[in-house]
Design goal:
The chain is mainly α. It contains 4 helices and no strands. The N and C termini lie far apart (180 Å).
């Protein structure tokens, strides 16, 4: 009789850990997935990733400022080139007026040269 009792106790003892481990597993699953634990995990994630995100934001702002400065410089250069192109009409006008002024100065010099040369030829130098 001892042997059947022993077998019965062995079966009971062998079957006892299964419900205990099942209950323990279920309890751990509930604790691991409890909302407060989820919020804790979220907080930890934010705490770890926030400094890196702040650094990325700072870098992006710096790059934005640099690119805005470069864009302003390019726009200013394009505007200056357009203004130079538009002013070519004025430079051509100035060029033609300068050529006209030079031609008139040459005419005046030629007219003065003829008027000063002519009186000298009429009045010969006095002989002593």
């Amino acid at each position: 009789m001892e042997e059947p009792e022993m077998q019965l106790k062995d079966r009971q003892t062998a079957a006892l850990p299964v419900p205990v481990t099942d209950k323990f597993t279920e309890s751990m699953y509930v604790l691991a997935n409890e909302p407060s634990v989820a919020l804790y995990r979220l907080q930890e994630h934010v705490r770890r990733s926030l400094p890196e995100l702040a650094q990325h934001k700072s870098d992006m702002q710096s790059w934005e400022e640099q690119s805005q400065g470069a864009i302003y410089t390019v726009e200013y250069a394009c505007s200056a080139i357009k203004n130079m192109t538009d002013s070519s009409v004025y430079f051509k006008s100035i060029d033609s007026l300068l050529k006209h002024a030079i031609a008139m100065k040459d005419q005046l010099n030629a007219a003065q040269g003829r008027s000063t040369v002519a009186p000298q030829a009429k009045n010969p130098p006095a002989s002593s």
